[in-house]
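Troubleshooting entry. The earlier prediction with zinc ion gave an output that would not parse, so I re-checked the input for stray whitespace and re-submitted. Clean input:
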Amino acid sequence: MDSIPWWLALAPFVLFGLGWVAARVDIRHLLTESRSLPSSYFQGLNFLLNEQPDRAIDAFIEVVKLDPETIELHFALGNLFRRRGETERAIRMHQNLLSRPDLPAEQRGHAMFELGQDYLKAGLLDRAEEAFRQLDSSSYATEAQRHLLEIFQLEKEWNKAIGAAEELQASGSGSHQLRIAHFHCELAQSAINESRLDDAERELEAGLAANRKSVRALIMLGDVAVQRGLDEDAIAVFKRVDQLSTPHTALVAERMLDAHRRLGRPTEGLKLLRSYLDASPSIDLLEVVLRATAEEEGAEAARVLAREALHRAPSLLALAQYLDVRAQMAAPSERDDLEVVRNLIHNYTRRIGRYTCSNCGFKARQFHWQCTGCAGWETYPPRRSEELDSQNLP
Ligand SMILES: [Zn+2]
């Protein structure tokens, strides 16, 4: 039998010895540390480990009272309070730190940054803004600027938001052109609401300069042309939407048709929309085209079109539209049955016919440029969820 080499036989003893020394060193270090900590600190830890956060907080507050030097514990507690929604206590914690004349500059900046977040969480936007503004030359400057941008959007202070986004961009934190274009659109919307059409146009041009692919700015430029009574110009602008982003065409379909009608050329408008529909099926576009076809050419033409669309891209949403057309033209004896089926399908398509935020999954009946769930800009694809799901199938 082969014997084990002598050095291998010794290995367990050597390893044991090394472990023993390491443990002694660690324990000695811990003991030195722990002697300088008040017993409430360990009580607090114990409560935390036993999942009793309220009692843990009381114990830690005791530590802070006994030993005001424990700056990190202040931060930890402040954070804990804020996360639990106890913003008043978090604010007091951080104000307490800031009131210390001997607080080092780095920690003063940290405390101010935390205080800003406390105010933001508490909804005290003015105070949050004031806190974050004081950090522009600290190491928290970029993060503070991010929060300022968030605050200006909540306050709908779009000019300030543009300034903050541009500063962030200049500091090298990625492109903010997409949202800057939306801020200009928001300013343009206020101008349109107050019939300041020149101002609106200026903002929209600025929006397109920030993001030349801004579909929203283009659509709104068309709306301004409509308000000015320039339907021909409006149609030209709306056509550019389709060139820029085909899926967004459905958003301007109704507007295009209306402009053609005002010019006395409804058939031309309908023909144009049908060519878009042939090029790229869209449930929203189909709805507009079917309604217009029924009005301009009668129910039978609409039925033929709805049937074609259903066969070409079968979906429950297309079926619901087909049944709508069929129910309208059915004989009274058949209509009752058709309406029962149509209502059943409609109840279901209400759920699958929504727009879904690609960032947070929030669903909305209406198309939004900004998600009401996560506040992201342009996170809704202009397609209904069933359309998107069917596109994603293998
Ligand atoms: Zn979202």
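This one parsed fine. The domain at 175-244 is CATH 1.25.40.10 (Serine Threonine Protein Phosphatase 5, Tetratricopeptide repeat).
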